[in-house]
Amino acid sequence: MTFKALTLGAALAVTAGLPALAQQSWTMTTTWPSSLELIETDKHFVELANKLTAGELSIEFFEGGSLVPAGEVFGAVESGTIQAGGDWPGYWAGRDAAFSPLATTPSLFNAVDYVNWIQQWGGAELYDEIYGNYNMVYLPYGVTNNESGFRTNEPIVTLEDLQGKRLRLSGLEQGKLLERLGGNQVSMAGGEIYQSLERGVIDGAEFSTPNVDWSAGFQQVTDYWATPGWHQSASIFGVMINKAAWDALSPETQEKLQIAADATLLWSLAFTEKRATEAYGQFNEAVTINRYDDETLAQVQTMANEVIIETACANPNSAKVYLSMIEYLEDYAQWRDASAPFNLGRTPNGPDAQALRDCM
Predict the structure, then answer these.
(1) Which residues neighbour 73 within 8 Å (Cβ) at sequence distance 6 or greater?
(2) pLDDT at res. 15
(3) Confidence (pLDDT) at 10
(4) What confidence score (pLDDT) does residue 21 get?
(5) Could you tell me how far CA 116 lies from the centroid of its own chain?
(6) What is the pLDDT of residue 190?
(7) DSSP 8-class letter at 261
(8) How many CB atoms are located within 10 Å of the residue 223 CB?
(9) Are 198 and 221 in contact (CB under 8 A)?
């Protein structure tokens, strides 16, 4: 036997005698209670991640509110109290306005636009950059298409019907847009909406897609639904991961979590669109559905563009995110418009990219 063979044999013997790397254990919660269907995306990701990383990582998942209040999930992950937390980025816009477009946009991106932008046009890097400022890594793993719109007990058919209405509305730009339209934004957690509608504390509310709204029981306390939801043309959800916990994983395990997130992102689009379609049929039998006309939606688009520019120019990070989005829309429009109507949605008449560059 050669010296080289002896050396290799000895090395293998030593390696075989070493203990295997210890399995990492994570605690993860979410902003969603089990009563809201949004939690299904979190559960899907955790189930898939645990399968792919078996023997390397074990994620124990807790429903929203069982470990910390929903509004404290961000801080718990940032501090390392827990390793991971499912969220909707818009809840953290008070920390940095850039979290708002990372979550949703008024009359701009649809679900496919978010997927395209995240996967191929630089969006993923911006999530990591903004969350990275808070000691976190971010994996987008959920997307829903257009949100429902306002649910009320008085019909909303035109913009004039919004005048003076106290409406639960989530989102930074969304609130500013509603105010320009004559309404008043009321902020409250999703779990408080039902009782607030029932007691007349608010005149109406938006929350999520039809299936999520149905699971929240809004059809029991409202008679009308104004659609489409121009305030949130699509939404992104994902998992915040404490940076130290992420860095403790092997590159292979990190890659498996990314694969789980990407797979869940695609699954969530089909799952929520199917469920939204089913829920629309249920709502159609339970309430009166009114749709804004095209002229009204064009007016909203113009005002939304103004609000986006105003909000973005007040925050460099927000301007950076929005500019990336608008540049994607301009780039993709070449092919999307050429292939119309056999394409993936509309090219919105969005804000001017140069205006964003100028304010940066």
Answers:
(1) 29, 30, 31, 64, 85, 86, 87, 240
(2) 34
(3) 39
(4) 57
(5) 14
(6) 84
(7) H
(8) 13
(9) yes
Residues comprising the chain, all counted: 360
* Pairwise CA distance, residues 296 & 92, whole Å: 30
Considering the entire predicted model, what is its pTM?
Answer: 0.91
Question: What is the residue whose two structure tokens read 């992104």?
Answer: 236
Name the 3-class secondary structure at 25. Answer: strand
Cα radius of gyration rounded to whole Å, the chain: 23
DSSP state of 146: S
pLDDT at residue number 14 = 36
* CA distances, 327 to each of 186, 337, 357 (Å): 32, 15, 11
Nearest to 103 by CA among 266, 271, 232: 232
Q: Which residues of the chain have pLDDT under 70?
A: 1-21
Distances (CA, A) of 219 to 9, 202, 210, 321: 71, 15, 10, 36
Reading the block at residue 62, the tokens are: 């807790």
- 27 within 8 A of 82, measured Cβ to Cβ: yes
**pLDDT of 360:** 83
Q: If you write DSSP's letter for every residue of 101-113 in order, what string do you get? A: HHHB-SSS--HHH
Secondary structure (3-state) at 135: coil
